[in-house]
Amino acid sequence: MEALILGATGGIGGEVARLLVARGWRVKALHRSQKQGDGLEWIIGDAMNRDDMVRAAQGVQLIVHAVNPPGYRNWGTLVLPMIDNTIAAARASGARVLLPGTVYNYGPDVFPHVYEDAPQRPVTRKGAIRVEMERRLKDSGVPTLIVRAGDFFGPKAGNSWFAQGLVKPGKPVAAISNPSAPGVGHQWAYLPDVAETMVRLVERGQALPQFASYQMAGHWDADGTQMTTAIARAAGKPELKASAFPWWLTWVAAPFVPVFRELREMRYLWRQPVRMSNARLLAVLGGEPHTPLDVAVHRTLQGLGCLPAA
C-alpha cells in the first residue's frame, strides 16, 4: 500500500507517516524543499500546485491532508485551494483522503455534548473554512475519512494550545497557564493516540463508508485543572499552581501577531465545556487508543524540551 502525506513535518502528519511506515506502507511526503529521512520518500512540490499534487499522488491509495498555512497566516486564501488540489489528486489516483478534523466546525448551539451528526454552524472564520473543506470533500464523491479530536498535545505538537498557551517550550516548567474559565471542562487529544486511531480506521479499507466521519473522546479534563496538575506532576513540582491565561494580551497583540488573533477567536471553546462523543468510533473499532494522561504529558514535555529527553 502507498500513501502521500501533506504536512509530514507537522504534528499529526508526521505521526501518521511514522505509523504507516512501521506497518509496511510505502509513504511519500510532499515538501517544497529537499528533505531526507524518517523512512519517507520525499518529493519536491507544493500543495498549492495542482500538477505537483496529481503527480505525487500517482499510485497511492491514501492521501493524508494534514497541511495548514504556518502560523495561521493567509488561511482564507490558501486552505481551500489546497483541499481542491487534494480532491483533484484523489480523483486522479482513486485514493481515499484522510483529513484531521476539528471542533471548530461546531458552534455553541450544540454544546456541551457534541455527537457525530450534530449540525455544523460555526461562529468563527476558521470554523467556516473547515466546514467548507468538508463540504467540498463530500460533494466531490472521493472516498473521505475525517477524524475529529480535541486540542492536540504530544512530543511533536509544537503548534498547539499545550505548547503555546500552557508551557514554554525549550525551558524547564517554571509556570503553567490555564486558558479555561474556572470549573470548565476541556477535551484533549494525545497525538500518537490520534494517529493510531486514524491508521486503524484506514486499515478497515472498503468497510468504511464513502464519506466517513468519526470523533475521539481523548482525555476529558472535567474541571479544567487535570491537565495543568498533570504537567506539575510530570515536572516534579506537584505544588506548582496554574495561573490564568492572559487573554487580555491576545486583544492587545492581535493586530500585530496573527497567532494571537487566532487564539482570541477560539476563546469560546474555553469558556464552556465541549465534549465530543466517540460512540460511532467505538462501534467500528471496539475501543479507542488511549495513553494514560501522566505518561502522555511526560512524553509531551520531553518532546518540547521542558524535561530531559528519555
Helix-strand sequence: EHEEHEHEEHEEHEEHEEHEHHEHH
In CATH terms, the superfamily is NAD(P)-binding Rossmann-like Domain
- Note the gap between the termini: 33 Å
Please count the beta strands (DSSP E, at least 2 residues each).
Answer: 14
* Low-pLDDT windows of residues: none
Strand order of the largest sheet: 3-2-1-4-5-7-11
The major beta sheet can be summarized as: 7 strands, parallel
Tell me the Rg in angstroms.
19 Å
Which structural class should the secondary elements be placed in?
A: alpha/beta
Number of domains: 1
Which CATH class? Alpha Beta
What topology emerges from the helices and strands here?
Layout (H helix, E strand, L loop, with lengths): L1 E5 L4 H12 L3 E6 L9 E4 L5 H7 L5 E4 L9 H19 L2 E6 L11 E2 L10 H16 L3 E5 L2 E3 L7 H6 L10 E2 L7 E5 H12 L8 E5 L3 E3 L4 H9 L8 E2 L2 H7 L4 H8 L9 E2 L2 H7 L7 H11 L7
Parallel strand pairs: 1-2, 1-4, 2-3, 4-5, 5-7, 6-14, 7-11, 8-10, 9-13
Antiparallel strand pairs: 10-12
Helix pairs in contact: 1-6, 2-3, 3-4, 7-11, 8-9
Structural description of this entry:
This protein has helices spanning 11-22, 50-56, 75-93, 125-140, 161-166, 191-202, 226-234, 247-253, 258-265, 279-285, 293-303, and strands spanning 2-6, 26-31, 41-44, 62-65, 96-101, 113-114, 144-148, 151-153, 177-178, 186-190, 211-215, 219-221, 243-244, 275-276. The chain has 310 residues and is of the alpha/beta class. It has one domain: Rossmann fold (3-Layer(aba) Sandwich). Strands 3-2-1-4-5-7-11 form a seven-stranded parallel beta sheet, sandwiched between helices. α7 crosses α11 (293-303) and α8 (247-253) packs across α9. The two termini are 33 Å apart.
